Input
Amino acid sequence: MLLTLIITLVVALVVIAIIVNAIQQHKERLAALKRAEFGKLRTILEDTEELIVNSANVPLSPGISQMLLKRIAFALRAMVELEPGARDIKQRLQETEKRLTESHADSSFTETVTLPDNDQQLIGMIKGIKKLRTVLRAEHARGNVDTQMVIQEDKRLETLQLRINVESQIKRGNQARTNNMLGSARQYFEKALTALTSTPHQDDYALSRKSEVMQALQDIATQLKEGNLRDREKKEEKENKDLDELFAPKRKW
Output
């Protein structure tokens, strides 16, 4: 009888240990999933806030600004659900919702872009626009942005990206021409012409810039041709001078 009781207790302890271990593993899996989800939301939050900060270089329309603020608010709400006791996240959510309300009343928008002289900053602008277009399509896939807005904003951003690319190439081309580096200047203007020719948005900007770039390339071709002609004339002049000296009468000393 005593042996049976001991065996029963041992079996019960083993079963309890198995159950406790299973519960612990389940809790650890849930905690790991929670951490992964929280990290994913934090990445969304940081990437979106970076796009808003980058608005100093890449102007954001009211529609894009609201979309980004809604994206931040979504991430913060989900983070609050995962961490109900996080006061700092709740505070940021309140501030974001306030900014979202104020953004509805502010419809001012000026699309002016100043190109930086630093190449790294210029690359950062292009990357910012590409990331913004990616976020725009992602939010559309989630049903947070209507199709008409996606079409309009994506076209605007694509055109803005084109302008930054073209203007930077033209700027470099003009600097190269000033420094009499005609070969490099030609390469910069050819890159600008390729971008202008390949864009599907052949608006007034693209057409006028294309005409200016083609004229610049024609002028450079003329300069290079004239330069080559001068070089040949100098070479021929030197060769003739060398021949004259070679066949000149020998002076007797």
